[in-house]
Amino acid sequence: MPRRSVALLASLLAAVLGFACADDEPSPRERCADEGIGECCDDSECAGGSLCDFDYICSPGPDGVSCSEPSGDRLCHLRCDAADEGQACPDDAGTCTRIERFQGGDAGQEAFVCR
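-> structure tokens emitted (115 positions)
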């Protein structure tokens, strides 16, 4: 099976299982929401055109899905274009920076945000 298909299958499995780390443990997203630190735990909590800087990797294993410790500042960051990488963002929103995002999957996705 091609690597991309394996990564997609693992991501779908994680979604179906609700990103649970174990039956009795909350997912990183659930822990984030319970902690109430920062302004977001998911992109859906940010305004249009922004991404949430909260990432963690989940992958299937023999004992179910296991998840890494989350990383990120839990803040919404404006998206920018690859062509603008390294350039200043509007309204002093930082510099357009390339990041790799996971948000529960085990295959990263490239994005560009103002930091």
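Confidence is low (pLDDT under 50) at residues 1-22.
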